Every structure is written in C-alpha cells, then in structure tokens.
Amino acid sequence: MNKGVTAILSLVAGAAAGVAISSSISGKIIHEKAEKVDKFKSYYYILNQWLLLKQQGNDLTKYFHDQGYKSIAIYGMGEMGNRLYEELRGTDIQVKYAIDKNAAKTYSELDVFDLEEQLEPVDAIIVTAVFAFDDIEKEISEVVDYPVISLEDVVFAV
Description:
By secondary structure, this protein is an alpha/beta fold. The chain has helices spanning 3-55, 61-67, 79-88, 133-141, 151-157; strands spanning 71-75, 94-99, 112-113, 124-127, 148-150.
C-alpha cells in the first residue's frame, strides 16, 4: 500500500477515534448534568409542597403522629436533612440521631453515624436524599428492620 494512502487512512482512523472518545466524554458530562438537574427539581417540588403545608398551618409532625412514629433517625444531613431536623426540633417527635455517608465530616447538633456503626432502634428512618432513595433504602434495609421512608413521601402525605 502506498505510504500516502496509509497516512490518510491513519489520519481518518485517528480522527474517528477522537470523535468517538469526545462523544463519549460529552455524553457522560451531559448525563451527570441531567442527574443534577433532576436532583434539584425533586428538591424544588418537595420544598414547594413543604412551604404550602406551612402556609396552611400544617407541619410534618402530622405525618409522624398519623403513623404512630415517636422517634426517628434522619439519613442525609445536607440541606434537606438539616431542614427536617429544624422542623422537628422542639416537637414531640424525637430525632435520635442522623446517618450520613460522610459522618466524620458532617457537623450537626445530632450524633451522626455511618451505616457500619451500631444504630439505636427508632420507629423509622427518613431519607432526605430522595433522588437516590431506592439505592439507599436497599442499603439501610440490609442493616436495620424498621421502616425506611422518603422525605418526599412524608411531605406529600401531609
């Protein structure tokens, strides 16, 4: 084969490989951004409903009373976890502790544990990371046998 033809074929093959790699990277970035958008959309809908409840004179303790839950743990001490704790602080619903994958780096008034630690029994664990609820529920259910509930379900049930 002619050296010129080989060089052209190599150039075309290299360009095709470059386009394929670039497309793969772009697709991954787009997917990650779409996941973040979905996460924040879910937070928006929950917080909007939560605000509507507050404006109507309701709060989340109604859900826990209706279910007969007197003590809970909060899974996920990001913004939503902190809002939930603040909502329940000073009520008759006892938040015994929090659970977080980054327990060692999480600052809270609550004791924060990771799932590998011994967890005190509670009536339910409320998961605030609603975007990953199915995976988190499965992980928690391997460790404890009490109800694992999405914050989204709590807010929309009141």
